[in-house]
Structures are given as C-alpha cells and as structure tokens.
Amino acid sequence: MPIRVLLAEDQAMVRGALAALLKLESDLEVLGSAGDGEEAWEMVRRLRPDLLLTDIEMPKLTGLELAAKVRDTGMPTKIVILTTFARPGYLRRALEAGASGYLLKDSPAEKLADAIRKVHRGGRAVDAELALDAWSEADPLSDRERQVLRLAGEGMQANDIATQLNLSHGTVRNYLSEAIGKLGVDNRIEAYRIARQKGWL
C-alpha cells in the first residue's frame, strides 16, 4: 500500500511543485493539498492521511498549531515540517508539537521522499546539526507571552490584543513586560525581533 500524503503549503507554486515531485515516487500517494492551516485540518480529519507534510507559517493555523491539533486528537497521522526556517527554536517547538520530521526546503528532492518513508516507519527525520542546536538554548517564553508578543510585533495595540485574546488590558501589558524582561531588551519591537530570529514565535 502506498503512503498516503497530504500537503499543506500556502504558496501555490511550491504546493504544485511538491505534489508533482512526490507523485514521481511509486510508493507515495498525494491525497490532496491545502493552502492554509484550517483547510489542512479539515482535510486531515476527512481523509485521515498517513502523513501530513506542512509548512510552518501559513494563514489561519500555523504548521505547529496543526501538528499540535493532530497530536491532541490522537490521530495516527505522522507530521513532517518542510520549511525555510533553519531555526533551532522552530525545530524544538515542532518536535514538542508532535512532528517527527523537520526538513528545509533547500534539501535535495530525494531526501524528502526518504524522510517521508522513515517517518512513516516510525522513525525521525531531522537535520543533525539543527537538532543539536535546538536543545542548546531553551525558549524562555510561555505560550501566552508568545501569543501576545507575536500580535504586538505584527502591529496590534494592547487594547486590540486584549479584545482578541479575551484578556484585560493590564494582563496584556504584564505579558509584554515579562517577555521583554526575559529577552533582556528595552521594548516589544526588539523582543519580537529576537524571538522571531530564534524561532520562538
């Protein structure tokens, strides 16, 4: 039986190229592809693929949020992250969210197919050097601090963040202050830049 793969990638050209690439492999079957995280989640629930190949940054749900949803519902679908981000923080969060593979988009094509097979068999497929770096520096942010800092870095004001997350204005300011303090910077913009650079957002 072929390995049934679902693709989640918001860039149409990359999505099409990945589908064409995987269809060349006789033991892989591409069930479909999704352009955002919510569409991917609906397809995962409906099609029950053996493996989900997903980018990290996508509209509506990120690849990390998608992986966590699959993990939390106990589905047997394996997760492989395919991304441009060679950031240890992203890798660490991906593994914590339940992903079994983490590959970079500039990897050779044959490496992707081999990684899918390895993960399907129950193994892990992660760049060794990136894996070593991922555990050298712990992410100091809590989930809520990360959420608030991400929205602040995208230009939202504290009042708007409070409304969106159903928090008080003071609580939002506290989360931002905690994040800024933990990252040892002077303001939310610097905190956002460093957290993104390290893959913590």
How do you describe this structure in short?
The chain is α/β, with parallel strands linked by helices and 201 residues long. The chain is 52% helix and 14% strand.
* Broad shape: elongated
How many beta-strand elements? 6
List the secondary-structure elements in sequence, H or E.
Answer: EHEHEHEHEHEHHHHH
Give the percentage of residues in beta strands: 5-15%
In CATH terms, what is the fold-level topology of the largest domain? Rossmann fold
The level 1 CATH classification of the largest domain is: Alpha Beta
What key phrases describe this protein's structure?
DNA-binding, Tscrpt_reg_LuxR_C, 201 residues, single chain, Rossmann fold, six-stranded parallel β-sheet, 10 helices, elongated, Arc Repressor Mutant, subunit A, 2 domains, DNA-binding response regulator
General description of the model:
With 201 residues, the protein is of the alpha/beta class. The chain folds into two domains: 3-134, Response regulator (Rossmann fold, 3-Layer(aba) Sandwich), CATH 3.40.50; 143-197, Arc Repressor Mutant, subunit A (Orthogonal Bundle), CATH 1.10.10. 52% of the residues lie in helices and 14% in strands. It is built from ten helices and six strands, in the order E-H-E-H-E-H-E-H-E-H-E-H-H-H-H-H. The protein has a six-stranded parallel beta sheet, sandwiched between helices. Helix 2 packs parallel to helix 3 and helix 8 crosses helix 9. It is elongated, with a radius of gyration of 18 Å. The mean pLDDT is 89. Residues 134-199 form the HTH luxR-type domain. GO terms for molecular function: DNA binding. Pfam families: GerE, Response_reg.
